[in-house]
């Protein structure tokens, strides 16, 4: 059994190292340097696309939170979300207005990622808080149809607590 | 040597062999699990993921333009077209590919729910879209905003179908995911 565990641990370590080497950008030899740079560029582009999509996902709530148009405003050039602050916000939803991101100056430039923007982390926190408070509305909306069911009451109370906490976190994040 | 002594000698030997065999099997299973875990962290074909992400980025920008032109039908059609994409599985392109799929389906469902008269679909058809988008193993994904949104949208669809129980479960599940995302963001890690 001990021999099996040792072989398992060494195999797992080798697998992780191999995995790291596979995903690692720089090539080990000079001939592959160009290929390594291309890989790194592709990985960075992938990360940018994912971050943009993350921002878009966290910024798009339901109709209740964002008003008539649930799709966020996007500049065709920068592709970064700027969540609408107006509309039918619930009282518990955070009322933080996000700044639109600057448009890229050159044809080949990409939009900056969240961490590079001032308040990027805070923007994420507030977007998540908006999503949580939207869910609170939806859960507590069900309660009206099931007033005698303790599960709906409990879920609504839990959601309300989460919304309060998230809203405070958003307001405290400056 | 008496029979009883022989039996005593063989019984523990047999037991020892059984224990050794069980240990070997357990070790092999643990090793396979660890190897699978290590492999899960990196897609077997990262170039597939990169190509998918770049393609979707272009498509999302096109959809943004359609929406800016108030062409909701066109945006929905473009997202419906993406549904026919041959999505790579997790083993090939990793978790990120699944998250990208969730993003596409989430955007489609959001538009359909907000504009039910455009290319209308029944609540059951919307539920099928949600199920198709989520897939079978979405619960094993790392907590992320795309999956959380799609799960919440499944809750909205359940409400449309009159299934408040399913809606409550979905909303609660999405809430748990968002709670996790918030904790990550507060801790400083990117959700």
Describe the structure.
- The complex is a heterodimer of chains A (174) and B (191).
- With 174 residues, chain A is mainly alpha-helical.
- In chain A, 35% of the residues are buried.
- Chain A starts with a helix and ends with a helix.
- Chain A has five helices and two strands.
- In chain A, β1 and β2 (81-82) form a beta hairpin.
- Chain A has a two-stranded antiparallel ribbon with strand order 1-2.
- With 191 residues, chain B is mainly alpha-helical.
- Chain B has a single domain (46-189), classed as Serine Threonine Protein Phosphatase 5, Tetratricopeptide repeat (Alpha Horseshoe).
- Chain B has helices at residues 3-41, 46-68, 72-83, 90-114, 123-134, 145-160, 164-187.
- In chain B, α2 (46-68) runs parallel beside α4, α4 (90-114) crosses α6 (145-160) and α5 (123-134) packs antiparallel against α6.
- Chains A and B meet through α1, α2, α4 and α5 of A and α1, α2, α4, α6 and α7 of B.
